[in-house]
Design a protein that fits this description.
Elements: H1 2-15, E1 23-26, E2 30-34, H2 41-52, E3 57-66, E4 69-79, E5 82-88, E6 97-102, E7 111-115
Antiparallel strand pairs: 1-2, 2-6, 3-4, 4-5, 6-7
Length: about 120
């Protein structure tokens, strides 16, 4: 019985977590966008405009909201002939959802999209 109460507490706690915050980083080395559930359509559009200034084409083929929170987001990223597409339903994971473009010449990968690994690849 105690085990079931503990398990229920873990499940309830994971469902009530605050949404992971969004983040935008644009530098000479990289463009990195982490999407969060609290991003409005206006904010998504401003992110698209900001990364376009670095030559990155970003579109959102589909997205859905429950009130003011994103419940689903699909992204399509294009940069210098590379194309990547990913989709999330914002289930709490250990990795953030977004994309990273690495401009360094010695980069292992120049485009990473979806559930991102920590740091510059």
């Amino acid at each position: 019985m105690v085990r079931w109460i503990f398990l229920f507490g873990i499940i309830l706690g994971s469902c009530s977590q605050n949404p992971r915050p969004h983040r935008l980083e644009i530098s000479d080395e990289k463009v990195e966008v982490i999407f969060g559930r609290d991003m409005s359509v206006a904010l998504l559009d401003s992110v698209r405009a900001a990364v376009a200034a670095k030559g990155v084409s970003l579109s959102y083929p589909s997205y859905d909201y429950d009130g003011e929170l994103l419940t689903q987001l699909e992204i399509l990223v294009q940069h210098e002939g590379q194309v990547g597409q990913a989709k999330t339903h914002f289930i709490f994971k250990s990795r953030p959802f977004g994309f990273r473009i690495n401009f360094r010449e010695n980069a292992k990968t120049s485009l990473e999209i979806g559930d991102l690994s920590p740091g510059i690849p």
